[in-house]
Amino acid sequence: NAIEEKEPKISLATVAEEAVRANLSIIAAKLGVAANNENIAEVRSALFPKITGELGYTRLNSDNVYVENGFNAEKSVSGAIKLQQILFSEKALANLEIQKELQIAVEEQQRSLEIEVVKQAMSTFLNVLMSQTYHRIQQDNLALTQTNLELAHGRVQAGTSDMSDVYYWESAIATVRQDVLKAEADVEKAQDALNLILNRKISNRFITEPATLNTLGILRDKQVLLNLIDDQRDIDLLSDFLIHEGSANLPSLHQINAQKRAQKRQLLSDERSYWSPDIILATDVSHVFDETRNPGAGIDMENETDWQAAIRLSLPLYEGGARKARTSRSQLKLQQLEVTYQDALRTIEQRIRSDLHTMKASYSSISLSEEAALAAKKSFTMVRENYAQGTRTMSDLLSAQNASLIAEQASVNTVYRFMMDL
After folding, report:
1. pLDDT digits (tens, 9 = 90+) for 294-318
2. Are 209 and 10 in contact (CB under 8 A)?
3. Lowest-pLDDT range, 82-96, 125-139, 158-172, 341-355?
4. Would the CA dihedral through 347, 352, 355, 360 be positive or negative?
5. Chain segment 385-400, per-residue pLDDT in tens
6. Which residues are within 8 A (CB) of 390 and not within 5 positions of it... i.e. 6 or more apart?
7. What are the tens digits of pLDDT across the range 221-246?
8. pTM, whole model, 2 decimals?
9. What is the 3-state secondary structure (H, E, C) of 1-22?
10. Is the torsion defined by CA of 40, 44, 46, 50 positive or negative?
11. CA-based, 20 to 30 A from 411: which of 19, 38, 277, 333?
């Protein structure tokens, strides 16, 4: 009792666009990028003036010797404004530049996630199409099996067979119906998986637009690529080109490069710490609003305003080997990132070449599987006609039907497999 409803229609292109816009992993990662960007503002703030306001009330016991002599006030209300400004700090400047590079690394990680989610969404959409195709084929197989049951009844009536054929096809119908139900469940599960990626209600259903090699956005110039992968010399040139493009554009490599630049800056800062001092300007202005003091001392600080200014230069002279350890650690981390980059570069080259080999084989399989499906279908048609006439056995018909079923599944799915590889 399937109900036909006006469901929304989606295509391979709309799936990709919606994945970037609505996927929860991407949204969460974007918030993380924005939050990490605030680290730059926080680190930069160290280079701006720091102004602190203070307001205090003090009281001393009246028999205090300093109070009795008038040196200290018994009661005092005072306030102060303090300003501190870093004039130069290698560590603060380095930290700012490092945070900027790390922010670039986080943004590249976000780009990498978006690419992966789009790839996952498009592959899942193709899985939905494959599941729907398999369900349709199983439904067709059920119809064929029911036809075979009718043929078996005809053979029994004609006296060319006994009821064993009828019983077999009745059993086969029950089995194929199970396959139809399982295929339908696979379609439902594939749609649920796609809804999860697209941040839709999991139970929502949709109508899928077929995806072919001519689908907009898959290939800008299909024939050029297909000609390339038909010639080994051209595919070698294509491999070199794609490896060069991948090395220049892949976010994962950009991320490692940003981390390398950040680590180089950290190493430079550690090396400069031996001779580069921190220079700080510190000033403060204080005012006594009210006080109670022994009048016999001849001192009265009420309504007095004082200020002071100082420039401090600090340079650690000895830290027990800590500076040497920091420098050595930064050098080792930089070497580690260099090795990681080379490893990632080689891995990417291997993956690109492997994907091209797979794509070349899967494209060649399209025409071969179509030929196999056509031949298997012709064979099944002939065997079924002969079975109806009593010249072929039930096992011959069963073998031909299974071969046709498998060939048809392979023929349809090779196109989707090629698109996934592409």
Report:
1. 777 777 788 889 999 999 999 988 8
2. yes
3. 158-172
4. negative
5. 887 777 777 778 778 8
6. 155, 158, 160, 161
7. 666 677 777 777 888 888 888 899 98
8. 0.81
9. CCCCCCCCEECHHHHHHHHHHH
10. negative
11. 19
Instruction: Give ∠ CA 279-280-284 in degrees, rounded to 5.
Output: 160
In single-letter form, the type of residue at position 217 comes to: G
**For residue 418, which of 351, 346, 369, 381 has the smallest C-alpha distance?**
369
* d(C-alpha 268, C-alpha 33), whole Å: 26
Kindly provide the residue ranges of all beta strands, DSSP E only, lying in 213-355, ordered along the sequence: 278-292, 305-314
- Cα-based torsion angle of the residue sequence 124, 129, 131, 136 in order, rounded to the nearest 10 degrees: 170
Contact between residue 366 and residue 410 where contact means Cβ atoms under 8 Å apart = no
Facing residues of 305 across strands? 287
Over residues 114-172, the pLDDT tens digits come to: 999 999 999 999 999 999 988 988 898 888 888 888 888 887 887 777 788 788 878 88
Q: Give the long-range contacts of residues 382-386, CB within 8 A, separation 24 or more.
A: 384/147, 384/148, 384/151
Residue 403 token pair: 């071969």
- Supply 87's token pair: 């004039």
Copy the structure tokens of residue 244. Answer: 């060069």
Token pair recorded at residue 207: 């109508």
Q: In the 8-state DSSP scheme, what is residue 78?
A: E
Query: Which residue in this structure is represented by tokens 């109900």?
Result: 3
CA 173, CA 183: separation in Å to the nearest integer? 15
Question: How does DSSP assign 274-299, residue by residue?
Answer: TT--EEEEEEEEEEEEEEE--GGG--
Burial label for 117, CB within 10 Å (0-12, 13-18, 19+), is buried
Q: What is the DSSP string of 225-236?
A: HHHHTTSHHHHH
| SS3 state of residue 218 | coil
Per-residue pLDDT at 4 exceeds 60: no
Cα-to-chain-centroid distance, residue 420 = 18
Side-chain half-sphere CA neighbours of 142 within 13 A: 16
CB 12 within 8 A of CB 218: yes
Pairwise CA distance, residues 53 & 82, whole Å: 6
